[in-house]
Amino acid sequence: MHAADPRAQRIDRGLALTRRGRPEAARRLLAAVWRQLSPVDDAPLRADCAMTMAGLQDDPRDRLAWCLRALTAAEQVRQSYIGRCGVPLPLCAFYPMVLHDLADAYHVLGDDERARECEARSGSGLAGMHRLGEVGLREMAAFASSRLAGRLGVPLPVQDPWAR
Predict the structure, then answer these.
(1) Model pTM greater than 0.70?
(2) Average pLDDT for residues 122-130, to the nearest whole number?
(3) pLDDT band of 160, cuts 50, 70, 90
(4) Contact predicate 156/8, CB 8 Å
(5) Dihedral sign, CA of 5, 152, 139, 38?
């Protein structure tokens, strides 16, 4: 996934529609993007799209469903990275955030036990990221910066470190 990927740009447009007070249009756009993403090859985009969709849901159960989709995609990114590099990456860059959002979704639905489990996993993921060392953290920060910059309309030519 590259910052110039048209599917990533469509996810960003969905966020822009949300900011302009058009959540239904954003949901339609993101649902179309979701259907175009490969469950095998597009895990980082699927996680991004699912996390964005989760934030657009009015029904807490729908929000939980999208958070679970984001978690599945994040896990696929992690497994793919381990498979390519042979390095047991504890958690991918956005995995702790996915777990945090999932914990919040469980909490809203009154499932505090699952919420606590997700928060604990999120905390251990953040600690695990620090074990990646300076280069790994720098790559993750560069990728996150490129995605944020793209959402703010400032394109940066940073390659996704997980796509290697």
Answers:
(1) no
(2) 56
(3) very low
(4) no
(5) negative
Q: Residue 1's pLDDT is what?
A: 44
Q: Which residue is listed with tokens 């469903």?
A: 65
At 91 the three-state DSSP class reads: coil
| Cβ atoms 91, 100 nearer than 8 A | no
Q: Which of 12-16, 50-54, 154-158 has the lowest mean pLDDT?
A: 154-158
CA angle in degrees (0–180, nearest 5) for 85-90-94: 95
According to the model, what pLDDT value does residue 93 have?
Answer: 58
Please report the domains of the chain, with CATH numbers, ordered by start residue.
6-148 (1.25.40.10)
Structure tokens at 49: 């799209």
User: DSSP class of residue 159?
Assistant: B
**What is the rounded distance in angstroms from the CA atom of residue 133 to the CA atom of residue 26?**
37
Q: Looking at this protein, which amino acid is placed at residue 157?
A: P
**Angstrom distance (rounded) from CA 62 to CA 4:** 29
Contacts of residues 20-24 at CB distance under 8 Å and 24 or more positions apart, as own/partner, are 23/56
CA–CA gap between residue 2 and residue 45 (Å, rounded): 10
Length, in residues, of the chain: 164
Distance, in Å, from the CA atom of 158 to the CA atom of 102, rounded to the nearest integer, reads 28
Q: How far apart are CA 31 and CA 69, in angstroms?
A: 13
